[in-house]
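Open question from group meeting: does this chain pack into something compact, or does most of it stay loose? Before anyone orders reagents, we agreed to write out a predicted structure and look at it together. Recording both the input and the output here so the notebook holds the full record.
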Amino acid sequence: MKPITAIACGLALAAAAFFSCTKDTVTETYTFYRPVFETSDAARNGIKSAAPQPVTNPGKLAIKGHYLYLTELGKGVHIIDYSNPRTPKNIAFVAVPGNADVAVRGNYLYADCYTALAVIDITTPESVKLQNFVNRVFPDRFSGLASDTGKVIIKWEKVDTTISRRFSESFDKTQDGRVIVYNDMVAYSSNSAGSGGGVTNSKGGSMARFALVDDRMYAVGLSDLKVFNTVDPAAPFYVKTAQVGTGIETIFPFKNNLFIGSQTGMFIYNIDSKDNPALKGTFTHARSCDPVVADDTHAYVTLRSGTVCAGNTNQLDVLDVTSVTSPSLIKTYLMSNPHGLAKEGGLLFICDGAAGLKIYDAAKPEDIKPLGTLKDIFAYDIIPLNGVALLSAKDAFYFVDYTNAANPVILSQLSITK
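Structure tokens returned:
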């Protein structure tokens, strides 16, 4: 494999294209992001506690006990004590370069560090210690980087390039294999289904790519599902990979099944055999971004437009999954621009983008009814927990009292600094 020297963001971002006076020549300006490499040893040394930092670019979230673990995309994980949701405290920051996803098992935080998995002892949140570093387990995070066994990327340098060519000629954006076209460099996309051996697992949002179930962690890549053995939380190890499909985005565990959302549909994998996930059922939908949550009888899928997933659909699909081998659509509800969602008992929570957080009575999935709305926020993802919801939004991270679902109330918020 030829070395990678740059990554083109978006579809090379043809920011300026126009004909010159010769009519057969085109000039185009592209924005590239060139990776800056560091040795794995140096990256490991950079994983450590830091003083609390402002939240500037929040990503995935996981909760365990009275702690919230919130990723700062590409940089690390905020640890927030919300034992009193009216006065949450940002107590520490764990620097993890290239981080996007997070899960917690026992006293150990699992975070991706570009193509590696970092295992961090968080017994004392203000003074964490790197416990293990599992190399090259997420190769598709940046195509081709798995071949470089001794290095990881620590940052990206922006490079603007202008080229002129004859209109009849094509421009090789891959630069003969040395440049990778990557459509969504920073928009990376755990939910607990129990724990194993008396060790408790974190619970996560619907946008997660990590899922802890008993003493296994399942992680989805762009097209696959990886299994990690976490019997010893301090020393998880890679077990195997199963190919799923293309455009995989999210994973949601419920009991002995994994519900995997993709840009073209939902996959249901059974994990009665922990190390051998078995495909049981699929449901195909129009191309769209697709997080999914489920309960014993139904799965709830949001589809939205305006993303790299393409499509122009904004809706909630409710599926009957009584038979996981043949999931079927029972009802579609129109939405504004739905993102993450959650189910707790008879309540369904939908983060409907600029339309806010919406709460529904879903006791009858074929006839869900609106209960309450939290307006004037751009809602992204949510974890409800016994009357208090942890809500990730565009402008802030909110703690919401929904004990009266018809009138959700913001208890407090952590501002996002831009």
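Observations to bring back to the group:
The chain has one helix and 35 strands.
Residues 6-38+142-182 form one domain.
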